[in-house]
Amino acid sequence: MNILKIIEYLLARAELLKKLFFGFLLLLVVLDVLLPREEAHYFIDKIPAFWTLFTIIGCYLLARFSKGLAHTILGKKEDFYE
Amino acid sequence: MNNWIHPAIFYFIGALFLPLLRGKLKKAFILLIPIAAITTVALTNYGNYGAYNFLGVEGLFGRVDKLSMVFAWVFVIMSFLGALYALHRNEDGHHIAGFYYVGGSLGAVFAGDYLTLFIFWEAMAFSSVFLIWYGKREQSVAAGYRYLLFHVFGGLLLFAGMMFYYTKTGSFAFNAIPPAGASWPEYLILAGFALNAAVIPLHAWLPDAYPEASVEGAVFLCAFTTKTAVYVLARGFSGFEILAIMGTAMTVFGVVYAIIENDIRRVLAYHIISQVGYMVAGVGIGTMLAVNGAAAHAFAHILYKALLFMGAGAVLYMTGVSKMTQLGGLYKYMPLTMIFYVIGAISISGFPLFSGFVSKSMIVAAAHHEGRIWLVLLLNLAGIGTFLSVGLKVTYFTFFGKESENHPTAKEPPANMLWAMGLTSLLCFLIGTFPQTFYTLLPFPVDYHPYNASHLSEMMQVLSFTGLVFYLLVKKLSPDAKLNLDIDYFYRKGTFLFMKLDEKVIAPLDALWGELYRTLGLKALFASAGLSYAFDQKAIDGVVDGTAYSVMGAGSLVKKLQTGRVQTYIGLSLFLFFAILWAVL
Questions:
Q1: ipTM greater than 0.85, yes or no?
Q2: Given CB atoms, is B369 within the 8 Å cutoff of chain A?
């Protein structure tokens, strides 16, 4: 099957894809810094690459907070209600 | 004015013919019902139709305007896709339940008064529960009953609200309620609506029931109930500040659970709460852009969430499992399913060219425009969680990751399922690529262009760096085979505690009472029986017997007088006559 071949072709080149991905991340930050900001009203519009910072911090905290909840008070055995 | 055909009629009447048909004719008919409804909606003109007067109450079956038409359009399209996805099922009951559910939703969306709305509202609850029961597992039955009880409770809130509203205003007309004039009748109605929109803390029915539904039923369920609720909120309660706050809270709440759940369909179910949160927040912000955004997001969401449930359902249908801890490496066996699932995932996450990018952003832009920066930040945080949970986590641990041994013979699902997923994917792409055409459906005129530099930059940063964090935290995010507590703990454990109370306290008390009765009660009863026996013998019998003896004595006296001879009687009579005469004189 063709799709499968494409996926496996890509998976075999995971290292290259990783490098391309990191390069793309850098490009995004650079582009956002260069973005014109004449119409900025609020601090979220004024700080360059605000959403990069927000995502890294927000995503990390959200993931750790959620998993932390599951590992402490929310998580129970699967037959809890039986 | 009366040349309008209510599209719900096709579902209500058409479904009844299904048991009479066989084979290919039946399959064709199942697809024909939604096609007829789509055609009817396409030919509909705006206006009010089907006004009626029932016992002095003014009702309206068909309020056809832009707001109701957005929802009608997506409902009929979704019913076609859902019917196509379920086409392989040979149970008439399943198809009929699905069609009645769609018909109920259409009836609710076109209803111009609370009475009509209430009837269709209940029809939805009572038809959709069968889609849960068709899951045919022990848990499905129990979850279905909990779902039904919860919705009956919501229906009662709505019913009480509309009755008090009637006494307050003298009318059942269902129109926009100004936030300033609202008091408790309106808030009761709002609570009834909010329950169906899965607004926390009235949400627990959703992630409890949807993952237990049948594979095909879940595709229907995720589309109609919550979005009908979004419609009625947009119609009646736009601009209510509490909705802006609760909606935003829902978006974050939903993704927290979506990140930690293990069952794919439960991840998606929790994620509905998050997505409906965007719509509720849009309704709460209440500007034209925000309400447009809520309607657009409901439209887009129905399609990509159904697509995700179709993908997850296909995995469950082919492998028999839907927990990520039991899955892995499926890309080798179900690559098409994976691609369709990923299209749903990038649509919901808001990738450029796909539908979430042009719908969700309207609501965020509306919050931004109003200076609600906290809402903007939290809505974007929920967007991060969306891509993290539904996009990356589920895709990685289901289709990639460590290959599981649970599905050695898994393969692509039946053709009808693939076609349904393919068509839905195409729609997600078309909406995202040609937003201005899509925006013409929206209730208010649209002056919004999602493809601008700062929005593109914002979304690409959010999505790409979420990818980076996932890459770094992937081990920490691996799913756990656990159950996560939610609000339903209180009523599920509540009934459990009640049963325990019954077993441990009430039943022993009952037994003790029985014992007490046997020992003390019976003895007392015996003693009193002995007493009454003695009384009966001595007193009652004495009196009765004495009377009897007296009567017998008198009888033997009288007997002597009755000789049978006439001259004795005449003599006796004369004697008595003179005796009386003497006594009187």
A1: yes
A2: no
